[in-house]
Amino acid sequence: MNMRARGRRSSVLAGGLGVALLLTSCGADEVDGGSAGGGSAEASEFELDCAPYEEFGDLEGETVTVYTSITDPEDQPHIDSYVPFEECTGVDVQYEGSREFEAQLVVRVQSGNAPDIAFIPQPGLLATLVDTGAVVPAPEQAAANVDEYWDESWKAYGTVDDTFYAAPLGANAKSFVWYSPSMFEEAGYEIPQTWDEMIELSDQIAESGAKPWCAGIASGDATGWPATDWLEDVVLRTAGPEVYDQWVNHEIPFDDPQIVEALDTVGGILKNPDYVNGGLGEVQSIATTEFGDAGLPILDGSCWMHRQASFYQANWPEGTEVAEDGDVFAFPLPPMEGDAAPVLGGGEFTAAFNDDPATQAFQTYLSSPEWANIKAQVSGPGWVSANTGLDVENLTSPIDQLAAELFQDPEAEFRFDGSDLMPGEVGAGALWTGLTDWIATDKPTEEVLTAVENAWPAS
Q1: Any idea which architecture 14-173+345-414 has in CATH?
Q2: Which of 300, 312, 321, 386 has the smallest number of Cβ neighbours within 10 A?
Q3: What confidence score (pLDDT) does residue 8 get?
Q4: Cα–Cα distance between 459 and 452 in angstroms, integer?
C-alpha cells in the first residue's frame, strides 16, 4: 500500500469545511464543480488527514470485506472512494455487491459467514439482524461523527433498543416534483410554495385543457411502491411527523382517520380524471405504467408535473439536461402551510459484524465528512448524503445539490420511508397490493387501509 499520506494533513480544504483533501494532480476548479455527466476527480488525487485512523493501531495488511446491494455501475465510485483510506491505513477493502443482498445477507449471517461490514438499506432489516446477536455496536469514533454531522433522526434509524449500531451512509430524497422549466416559463406559471398553490396550479392547467399530472406505479413484483411514497409524503404534511411515527410503528391503526384523510388527499390528485394521466391514459393507467416511464410525457408537453425521488434523474433519456434552466428540473413537494416542507427519504446504514480495529476504522471513515466529500467528487449524478459536512458544491448534479440542501435545512423535518420501516408483509406486501387496487379498481380508501391494518402481524 502507498503509505505516503500517513500522519500528514492536507493544505487544501474543500468547501471551507475543514475536510482535508490534498489535490495531487488536478486544479481546484476541476474538483469544486463538475457537470451532471459524472464525477470530476479521481480518488487517487486525494489524501486524507490520517490522524483519526492512527488511534486504531497499525492496520497495515489488514482486510475489511464489504457486502452491499449496490452493484455495477454504481459500485465503482464506492470502490474508488475507499482509496484514500487504504493509502492512509494499509487496509485492503474488498467490495462485493449483490442483487440478492437482503436474502443472502441473512443466510450468510445465520451460517457464520457474515461480512465485516454490510450496507443495510432498511432499518427493519438492521433490527432483525441485531436480534440475531451478530451485529456489534458502532465504535465511539463513528458515533461522534454522526452526533456532529447528522440530524438526530438519522442516528435513531441506526439504533436498536437504545444501542447505536449503524452509521448512515448515502441518502435519497423522495419529496420532489419534476417539471419542465421552459413550459412553466412560457405559460407564466410559478413554482408553488404550498399545497394549496400546487392544487390551484393543477386546476389552472386542467382548465387549459391539459393534464397537469402523470404517474406510474408499475414495477414488476414491487408494483405499488411509488404510491406508498405518495401516501407517506402526504401523511407527513397533513398529520405531521409525530403521527407519521405513530403510524409507522403501529401505535395507531393503519386505517386511523388521519391516514384516511391523507390517502384521500393523494386521491385528489392521482384519482382525479381532470388531473391524470397526462400522455399515458386514464386514471387506471397509473397502475400499469412503469414508474421509470411515468415522467417522460413532460418532455413532449403532454404532462406538467411528476412526483418522484431525486434518483429519477437517471430515467431521463440521454441528452436530457437536468437543470433549473434545462429540459427538466424538480421542486420540493410543498408543505400544507408556508413552513419548511417535510422531507421523505431513504438511505443505507453501515453495520459491522465484528469489532476488529480495521473494521472500526473503516466505519469511522464512512461516517466522516471527508469520505462524503470524496465520494461526491468521484460519483456522477444520483448520489447524495445527509452528512452536513458535505459541501453541496462537490455534488455533480443540481438535483443532488437540491436534495443535500433539503437534508441540511435545520427547519426541515426528515422521516425515513415508512414502508421500509414496517414489517415486510405490510410495507412490501399488503400496502403495495392495496394501493394498486385503490387505483386500478377504484377500491375505496377505507377498505384499502382496513385490509392493510388486518395484515399487520400480531407480534
Answers
A1: 3-Layer(aba) Sandwich (3.40)
A2: 300
A3: 28
A4: 15
What digits encode the pLDDT tens for the residues 76-126?
999 999 999 999 999 999 999 998 888 899 999 999 999 999 999 889 889
CA dist., res. 133 & res. 137, Å (int): 10
Place of cell 441518502: 171
Q: Is the pLDDT of residue 5 over 70?
A: no
Same fold, 14-173+345-414 and 176-341+422-455: yes
Please state, in angstroms and as integers, the Cα–Cα distance from residue 335 to each residue in 238, 268, 300, 306, following that order.
9, 16, 28, 16
Long-range contacts of 404-412 (CB under 8 A, 24+ apart): 406/173, 406/175, 406/332, 406/341, 406/343, 407/151, 407/171, 407/173, 407/343, 407/345, 409/340, 409/343, 411/339, 411/340, 412/340, 412/341, 412/342, 412/343
Written as nine digits, the cell of 26 is 488536478
- Integer Cα distance of 174 and 231 in angstroms: 12
H or E stretch covering 412:
none
C-alpha cell at 364: 469511522
The pLDDT score that the predictor gives to residue 266 is: 98
Residue in the structure block whose three cell numbers are 382496513: 450
| pLDDT surpassing 70 at residue 24 | no
> Tell me, what's the pLDDT at 18?
36
Here the cell at position 415 is 422521516
CA distance 117 to 358: 11
User: What CATH number matches the domain at 176-341+422-455, 3.90.230.10, 3.90.1150.10, 3.40.190.10, 3.40.630.10?
Assistant: 3.40.190.10
Give residue-wise pLDDT tens across range 231-275.
Answer: 999 999 999 999 999 999 999 999 999 999 999 999 999 999 999
Give the C-alpha separation, 168 to 28, whole Å: 28
Domain boundaries in the chain?
14-173+345-414, 176-341+422-455
Integer angstrom CA distances of residue 76 from 14, 80, 83, 353, 456? 22, 6, 11, 24, 39
Q: How confident is the model at residue 33 (pLDDT cuts 50, 70, 90)?
A: very low
